[in-house]
Amino acid sequence: MPSSNEATRSAVDPHAGKKAASLSSVEECAGSRITQAIVRDILDYDPETGDLIWRVRDGKYFASARYHDLWNKRYPGTRALRSKDKFKGYRYGTIFSQTYLAHRIIWLWMTGDWPTQVDHKNHVRADNRWSNLRSVTNKENSRNQKMKSNNTSGVTGVCWCKNTQAWQARIKVDYKFISLGFYANIDDAANVRRAAELRYGFYKNHGKAA
After folding, report:
1. Is a pLDDT exceeding 60 seen at residue 34?
2. Nearest to 96 by CA among 155, 193, 20, 162
3. What does the H/E/C string look like for the chain?
4. pLDDT tens string 93-105
5. What's the sign of the alpha-carbon dihedral 32, 36, 42, 44?
6. More confident residue, 30 or 140
7. Is the pTM of this model over 0.85?
8. Per-residue burial over 89-117, b = 16 or more CB atoms within 10 Å of its CB, e = otherwise
């Protein structure tokens, strides 16, 4: 016998019997079932806050008038796709029992296109304001990473070398580390590292804390 939550879900979602995709598979299947016309019909988006809001939904999306009435009594005006992945930090949710990342739906809503990847410029993955999102390639995305949790110098790409008793600067480009030299002063090492980031096309926020 289904639980009360399952019964409610079935009542408001005619596709509830289908298993939603896991978050790990969202990137592969996200573009297969939904269009800009649909997301604009069922969702509003506030570029200033990054919030997606459910709209009143037309009867064409429901198996019966009863499902239509139940859904529209409960959801319009509430935030959509607001669950937060506790490991990766992204907002996500389901549309017609298909799991989607909120930032990808937002990109579709705004542009009509499915991006290869969407980068959160400030490294805060739940911050879906339009000004914080950009479409990137895998390489571009790798060049805007937040500071690693194990960083001890306070500067990405700079560490203290016990053997030389100096600050070492280096940068990883196309999966290979490039040494940028050893410096007595950490500021000198940091300046060399930042210059290398510019030279190799890293985003301005790369290496900063989220």
Report:
1. yes
2. 20
3. CCCHHHHHHHHHCCCCCCCCCCHHHHHHHHHHCCCHHHHHHHEEEECCCCEEEECCCCHHHCCCHHHHHHHHHHCCCCEECCEECCCCCCEEEEECCEEEEHHHHHHHHHHCCCCCEEEECCCCCCCCCHHHEEEECHHHHHCCCCCCCCCCCCCCCEEEECCCCEEEEEEEECCEEEEEEEECCHHHHHHHHHHHHHHCCCCCCCCCCC
4. 999 999 999 999 9
5. positive
6. 140
7. no
8. ebbbbbbbbbbbbbbbbbbbbeeeebbeb
Domains along the sequence of the chain with CATH = 4-141 (no CATH), 143-210 (3.30.730)
Residue type at position 115: P
Residue with tokens 């301005």: 204
